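Worked example 2:
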Amino acid sequence: KIIDQDRNVIVATGTGSGKTESFLIPILNSLFKEKENGALNPGVRALLLYPMNALANDQLKRLRDLLKNYPQITFGSYTGETEEKYEKARERYHKMYKDAPLLENELISREQMKKTPPNILITNYAMLEYLMLRPKDHTFFDGKHSKSWQYIVLDEAHTYTGAKAIEMSMLLRRLKAR
């Protein structure tokens, strides 16, 4: 339905049953098609929202494995933990991941992502709020790299209840209007 009918979907199923693949496959399919057509350039196509950084970091590991042979498709995590400058981000990366090589398509600093926004942007709802408010972060929403948004994924959506759910729905409305 996502690919063939361009539909919004909700996937609710048990742990380990393929929820992540249900959104990653359509996103990657779309990016591969853009690459084949010579239309892939910087700019967010997919926003993956997580309720906490630990889940976002797990998704980064998966994307590293999936995209290590596809350097044209870029991805990055923009959270409170993301360093502004590349050199500091690279130091942090090597401390955290020891021997893991840094992929050329993984954008690890805020300055990298502001200059050339990744195709897949991973963040949390609090940081999305900041990104939308701070003028220095408007590159994701305004300018030459901002016209290609296609997917917004709320992973672990069941965690948004009560007041947090209301805030999240308002944030998504503002994002959509943007």
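The chain has a mean pLDDT of 90. Residues 19-36 form the longest helix (18 residues).
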